[in-house]
Amino acid sequence: MKISATILTILAVLGLGGAALAAEELLGAGATFPEPLYSKMFDVYYSQTGNKVNYQGIGSGGGIQQILGKTVDFGGTDAFLTPEQLAKSPDNSLLHIPTAMGAVVVTYNLPGKPQLKMTPDVIAGIFLGGIKSWNDSRITGLNPGVQLPGDPIVVVHRSDGSGTTFVFTDYLSKVSPDWKNKVGAGTAVKWPLGLGGKGNPGVAGLVQQMKGAVGYVELSYAKKNNLPYAVVKNRAGNFIVPSIKSVSLAAGASMPDDTRVSITDTDAKDGYPISAFTWILVYQEQAYGDRKAGKAKALAKLLWWMTHEGQKYNADLLYAPLSGEVKTKAEKIIKSMTFNGQPILK
Amino acid sequence: MRRERLFRNLLRLAAWLVGLNVLVISITLFWGASPTLRHFGLGFLWSSHWNPVTDEFGALPFLAGTLATSFLALALSLPLSLSMAILLGEFLRVGWLSNVFKSLVDLIAAVPSVIFGYWGLMVLVPLVREAEMWLMPLGQSVGIEIMPYGVGVLTASLVLAVMIIPNTAAIAREVLELVPRDLKEAAYSFGATRYEVVRSVIVPYARSGIFAGILLSLGRALGETMAVTMVIGNTNEMPANLFAPANTMASVIANELAEATTAIHYSSLIAVGLVLFLVTTVINFIGTYIIKKMTVQA
Q1: Partner-chain contact A187 B49, CB within 8 Å
Q2: Is A76 on the interface with B (CB under 8 A)?
Q3: Angle CA(B30)–CA(B33)–CA(B39) in degrees, nearest 5?
Q4: CB distance B265–A60 less than 8 Å?
């Protein structure tokens, strides 16, 4: 009895193995920011379709290099490619498909965890070192009801290169000419002052340890860890509480068809101004190397699923879902994928 | 006979593989660093500007950070690790207490560096911050600006000092135990005290071995990444003083490599790796030379 049961089990496993071989296995690598979301999405996708998707969070830089080297089926990035980077694959264009949105919030260590109001000038002033203490009139003027101490402000930034730093410095470059001239935007920059912490936990850890410290972290990280964060005045002049909704709304602004756009300092009326997309990178023409049509189709279907049914997992994991307008653009981009010149999805 | 030859050839092959490995690593580093070396030349070593936005790269702040933290850590740890080695190698060679001490020293070596970093961040950093608050007015009076950050060169050196104790302590203890008994007994028979025997016979006899242990400690301090990055403040500038935040070569590579999107940034990080590799090699060569000079001709 026991032996026949074992044989049955082995047969069952072999049978499943056979089914798994028939399904396609896709490989991706890149940005760490969407990794928790992708893990969840790919897990669900596997249980629904039997198609296995592996994603390695190695950083946007690595993701871009791997897709350019064609060692993965898709790359993940928090920063859209520059024209120079796009020019590295002249014979086959890379498509950007937005999958989720995130935001960066300004967090601080102040008694009573108040929700401070901040203007772009105040944020730039703090991170440039012009505003040195919490009872500076530029801060107290915006927050009349809040008791602010005279502690010196200790700036904490990310020490590791990151998409979060890119979004934050990209925002500051847009709102402050001074910042643009002295520092600029990038995944790593030359900070005028302050300490570096590794990752969101490193920044949050230093901020929580030091009275009067200020730093920037991802919205999802701040929410999960119950950190206080600032309400920021957007271009329309409204003070916006960072939330999944106000981040989604930030993309309402005029978007180019290839979605390669920075939406920081958005002109959307109710959009949170320090928001950004994260993208998946794929080649438009999928018949390259020794790729089979089946793999190309599986990839296009996966992307479609991620931008549609998959979107319902965004909010649970504190990522903002794509707005209807962005979804329409993503649909067009996915439909432009071809195999030997023939559209993959009809 | 055939098995003898097979065995010898296998050993040879393995040894060559190890040597080849080092060679391949250095070639890879040179290759990866070549765009930066061509672009900045030797100025890469002397420039203290590190600005990924404007593509200006210089390794000096990290070189300074690595050397400062490593040598300070060594200076802080030596009194402790050498005392431990002499105690266990001479005074307390057997017994349960000796075993407890030996196990504890080995335990330090077994603790992963991220645990040291975490301990540093949670325990040491607040303590250093308190000390810095207290030292702040004193510093001001002599013109040294001390900010009570808690993280910085000093904190990193303290964490490193603890981490590198076992490397020196374990090796020094073993060589101290190897000092021939007849040498020591000869000294005692002349009426030397225990202290005199340790000072004039045991330590001089074992000094090359002790130095080898110190060299290993230094090697660990130079290359340590995780524990340092958690407590050094990660500021890519020349440290103004002991209390200032800084960064090290290993730490900046670990921090920036994953998201280095431009080719020159990536290459510059590899060039920092090359500098670290060269610094370690040079220190090892000097060390080997000193060990040779020190070895007692028996």
Answers
A1: no
A2: no
A3: 125
A4: no
CA distance A136 to A121: 13
| A185 touches B: beta carbon within 8 Å | yes
Q: Which of these, A256, A244, A218, lies nearest to A78 by C-alpha position?
A: A218
Is residue A235 a contact partner of residue A266, using CB atoms and an 8 Å limit?
yes
Minimum Cα–Cα distance from B269: chain A residue: A161
Beta-carbon count within 10 A of B220 CB? 19
The reply to whether B149 touches chain A by the CB within 8 Å rule is: yes
Chain A residues near residue B260 by CB distance under 8 angstroms: 61, 161, 187-188
Q: Quick one: chain B helix, strand, coil %, rounded to 5? A: 80, 0, 20
Structure confidence at residue A216 (pLDDT): 96
Residues of B in contact with A154 (CB under 8 A): 147, 149
Residues B23, B209 contacting (CB under 8 angstroms): no
B267 part of contact set with chain A, CB < 8 Å: no
Could you say which DSSP state residue A132 is in?
-
Phi, then psi, of B105 in degrees rounded to 5: -65, -45
Q: Which residue of B has its CA nearest to A210?
A: B149
Of A58, A160, A183, the CB nearest to B255: A160
Task: Please state, in angstroms and rounded to a whole number, the distance separating the CA atoms of residues A255 and B264.
Answer: 31
Helix, strand, coil abundance in chain A, percent, nearest 5: 40, 20, 40
Question: pTM (2 decimals)?
Answer: 0.84
The tens digit of pLDDT for each residue in A62-102 reads 888 899 989 999 999 988 888 888 888 877 889 999 999 99
For chain B, how many residues are written? 298
Distance from C-alpha of A38 to C-alpha of A40, rounded to nearest angstrom: 5
- The whole-angstrom separation of Cα A78 and Cα A172 is 17
pLDDT tens digits, B149-206: 999 999 999 999 999 999 999 899 999 988 998 999 999 999 999 999 999 999 999 9
